[in-house]
Each structure stands twice: as structure tokens, then as C-alpha cells.
Amino acid sequence: MEKITGFFTNLMRKYLPDPFVFAIGLTILTMILAMLVQGQGFIAATTSWGSGFWNLLSFTTQMAVILAMGYVLAKAPIIDRFLNRIVLLVQTPKMAIIVATLVGGIGSYLNWGFGLVIGGIIAKKLALKVKGVHYPLIIAAAYSGFTLYGLGFSASIPVLISTAGHPMEGNMGLVSLAETIFSAPMLITSLVVIITLPLLNAWLHPKKKENIIEINPAVDAQEQVAAASTVSTYEEPTLATKLNNSRLLSLAIGGIGVIYVVASFNQGGKLDLNMINFIILFLGIILLGTPANYVSSLNEGIKTISGIILQYPFYAGIMAIMAGSGLVDTFAHWFVQFSTAETLPFWGLISSFFINFFAPSAGGHWVVQGPFMIDAAKELGASISQTSMAVMLGNAWNDLVQPFWILPALALSGLKLKDVMGYTVVMMFWIGIVYSAAVLLWGFLG
Fold first, then answer.
1. Which of 72, 165, 252, 399 could form a disulfide with 297 if both were Cys (CB 3.0 to 4.6 A apart)?
2. How far apart are CA 85 and CA 97, in angstroms?
3. pTM of the model
4. With contact defined as beta carbons under 8 Å apart, do 201 and 427 qualify?
5. Using one digit for the tens of pLDDT, what is the confidence trace for 115-156?
6. Residue 222's pLDDT band (boundaries 50, 70, 90)?
7. Pairwise CA distance, residues 9 & 141, whole Å
8. Which of left, alpha, beta for 367 (phi over 0: left; psi -120 to 50: alpha)?
9. Going by C-beta distance under 8 Å and a sequence separation of 6 or more, which residues neighbour residue 378?
């Protein structure tokens, strides 16, 4: 196993560029494919790209908000103390890897933005506390738990298609969460991943001391000094400072937010992305205690979203080329043309895995692949719920090697993509086996 991980790590360090360069390369590749495969002209491909560049601006803002607010929530004192208690119980490097995977995975299952951040935070805490932990691996392990979001409460496609008024409701109707993420096969799959992935990650830990790269404590010390320097040691007790540090204000506005959430659900409201962001925001305000504390933590969290703000428009442009040229339909058709009712979800999973390189957002991904897959399911008599869930799993599977979503973990850790990707490639192979087996068995037995 050390030889395998060593091979992929060396490969990534030599040839894998930074995530932004990767996005630029995918843009050029997509244009070339649109011209060669679809016969689209360069000007037409460029026009599609430029026209679609800001198509996902609203969604980009939602993604940025969920990550920044998730960071604040993960840094709340009560959660920070909880993480510190967990860290104190861990004594060995392999156990540290297991715990980091579990925290990242469970956090992502509950909410993907929260999981991305809390996984990176506890991984860093464990690396500082437990001597001999291979730092790149524990960051990769915490991030690998992100794949569980595709099976969890914030899985974008299942949540979307269960919501009245979704864009494809006329073609496929509503698909309840009981038929997707809360179905017995998917609950079992979640359990298999949460048990086996931490064990795999622990197995990847280098045995030879010379192969272990530990965290540099000086980096954390510098961050603590920087954080401390942003806090004034003395503030004149004016009305303004009293309001800034008022717990009553935070509780009042937080209470109003909670009342709204309860009232919304009582009136038939759905747990969509906006509602998730709303809950995370006001829960964070309550837990941070004062407006000043919230703003201070948010300022720290902003650094985790710079990559998303820069790169997401490029991926929106890529998706526009794929949709405008018909490339995504052609690509999906290659897999679907030899499918049966039982195997369509499996080929949907595989095609989704590859499409996610070009469209690393389940919501945007569904916009370009969903219509074709649902039409194929209806034509073949395949299960719409299984086909939809397979597309979601393909997306979550590919995220292990798609550089986009690992950006917050890299921002928190100070590592480069090439430092961790060799490990996530190995994790990707295992998750691929689990998801493929789950979808196939579900198709033939369900």
C-alpha cells in the first residue's frame, strides 16, 4: 500500500498543477472537445463560454456563504471545545487518521459545507497534538469524508428533486427522500463507507519515519499571533462597543431566525440550500455569543472561499459549452446506449463521474445531465429514483479527485493540492468500488 500511495503521490507532485490552472486547462479541453466531437466552431464555443460565465453567480454566492458560515459554526466555542475533547482522547497516528475521517464524514453527511470545514479543523488539531502523524494524509483523510455528503441531508440532487416546483418536475414528478438518501440501500451504503473509509485511510499511513511529514508548529503559532493581533486589548466602554459585544442582540436576532425556521417548516417549507444557509447563519450567531465575535470569526472564514469565487465562473463557462454544444448529451449517450433498465443507474454513475470533472457542482451537474438520464430511464423503464441517486453518487465519488472542493481544506492546512491528491486517488478507487456495487445491487435487487 505504501508503494501504491507513493506512486500516486510522486505522480501528482510532478504533474498536477494548482486548482486554478486545472480549471483553465479544463476550459480549453472542453472547447477542443466541442469542436472535434460536436463540430462546433471556435467562435460559437467561445460565445457559449462567455455567455455562461456568470450563469451560476447566484449559486456561487450560495456556495461561498455555506462555506464561510460553516467555518464560523465549526469555530464556535462549544464546538471547538467538543473537538478539543475528542483530540485529547487520541494517542496514535492511525487513530488520528480514523477520527479525522469520521469527523469530516459525519459532518459532511449532516451538511457538506460544515463537514468540509470541521474536518480540516480537527485534522489540524490532531496533527498538532499527536506526534508522528503524516500531515498531508490526515488532511486528505478529513477531506475524503466529504464523499458522504452525496448520501446525506444536503445531497443536492435528492433534495432538489424532492422539492415542489423543481425545474424537471413536469418530466419526472417529485421523488421523496425516502426513495433516495433514506432508502435502505443508501443507508446501508452510508454505513459501509463510514466504517471502511477510516480503516482504509489509517492503512495508508507511512510506516517509515523518514516518509512522515509532520505539521510545522510554527505555522499554527503564527496564525494564533495574527488572530490575537486583530483583537483589541482594550475598548472604551461606549454605547457602540456595548452593542458590538451584546449577547442580548445575538440572542434576539438568533431567536427570530429560529422562529422563522420553525414557522417555515410548519407551513410546508422545504430544506433547500437557502434554508440550510439560513440555519447555519443564525445558529452561528447564537453560538458565537456576540455580533463582534461572529464578525471576527467570519473574517477568518473568508479566506476559505477565495478559490470558489475565482474558479466557479470558469466551471459555469465549461458547463455552458457542454450544454450549448450538446457535448454532455453525446457523452452520456455513449454510456446509456448499451444500458438496460437494471444497468442504467450504474452507467449513470460512471458517466456522472467523468462529467463532474467539467461540472463539479451537483446542482449545475444535474442541469446538464439530468434531463437526458431521466428520459433514458423512462424509455428503458428504469427507476427514476435510482437513476437520479446514481448521478448524485457519481458526483460525490469524483469529488475525491476533482480539485475544486478541496480548496477550503488546502486554505486551512497551508498545503498544496499536489501534497494530498496522491492519497485521495487511492481513496477514490475504494469509494468507486463501494458505490458501483451499491448501485448495481440496488438495480438488480430493488
1. 72
2. 16
3. 0.83
4. yes
5. 888 898 899 999 999 999 999 999 999 999 999 999 998 898
6. low
7. 14
8. alpha
9. 172, 384
